[in-house]
Design goal:
Length: 269
């Protein structure tokens, strides 16, 4: 079975994707360069928001380094056929022609921008995206942050779905949420989601090898697509100023309600 793998360059992407490639004899990897893991804070914000911004992304970097280690795409994919590209090179005819020539049986996507024509039409029938967020509630970007902002840490999870030409709208194949525990910070939950993704996608690969298809669930509600422009550093006041990054504790104490997402998985169907 031939795999077409799309991978970002952040450690969270490499941590999952290095396990995926172990389950295929032949893989073509499309590697897309990602932005800096620790961005510079905007210049036109007040000191408190600036401090929260720096703390938030520094904490994420520390948590992810502890969880995933120092990973590099050069090392992980050194024995695989690969294409390294910048974001503006992803949806080009050059990339599409290489994908058509490879003729994969399955595609898995984790960590790259939205795939559009001419590349989209060259993908195999089954093309799974690993989305760090629960669709349809949280689609688009920063979808492990927004559940915390809306006081719903229990809605931080993953959705593995067939891709479409619209962000995170394809048939849902599998969803999961991590076990929340006292003292979990926002980034602890994020790391747990990534670890779930690694285990869950391997289960789905084995499912596919035995069934040769994925029973999916159509998303019947539109939800919301979160974009980069929706985020402002002042949103971090909810996480750090109001809750001191202890929102999970408040949820487990029953102070934030008890609503829970209804999840789908073909592994349970």
């Amino acid at each position: 079975m031939k795999l077409l793998l799309f991978s970002g360059t952040h450690s969270r992407h490499l941590y999952v994707n290095k396990e995926i490639i172990k389950h295929f004899k032949e893989t073509l990897v499309i590697i897309m360069e990602r932005e800096e893991l620790i961005p510079n804070p905007p210049s036109n914000i007040d000191e408190n928001d600036r401090n929260n911004f720096i703390k938030h992304f520094k904490n994420r970097s520390v948590k992810e380094k502890d969880a995933y280690g120092n990973l590099s795409h050069e090392t992980i994919f050194k024995n695989h056929e690969k294409i390294y590209l910048l974001p503006n090179e992803l949806n080009t005819f050059k990339t599409a022609n290489k994908i058509k020539e490879f003729d994969a049986d399955l595609s898995i996507i984790f960590g790259v921008d939205l795939i559009l024509d001419p590349v989209f039409d060259k993908l195999p029938k089954d093309k799974l995206n690993i989305h760090l967020g629960l669709s349809p509630w949280y689609k688009g970007g920063a979808t492990l942050f927004w559940p915390f902002y809306f006081l719903q840490p229990q809605f931080a999870g993953i959705t593995i779905h067939q891709i479409s030409k619209n962000p995170d709208e394809g048939e849902i194949i599998h969803q999961s949420t991590p076990k929340l525990e006292y003292e979990d910070t926002i980034h602890d939950v994020g790391v747990k989601c990534v670890k779930n993704a690694k285990n869950d996608i391997i289960d789905l690969i084995n499912f596919y090898k035995s069934r040769n298809h994925f029973p999916g669930k159509i998303q019947k509600t539109s939800g919301r697509v979160w974009r980069g422009k929706d985020f402002h550093p002042s949103h971090l006041r909810v996480i750090y100023d109001l809750f001191n990054d202890k929102m999970v504790d408040k949820y487990l104490d029953g102070e934030l309600g008890n609503s829970k997402p209804i999840l789908y998985s073909c592994l349970r169907s």
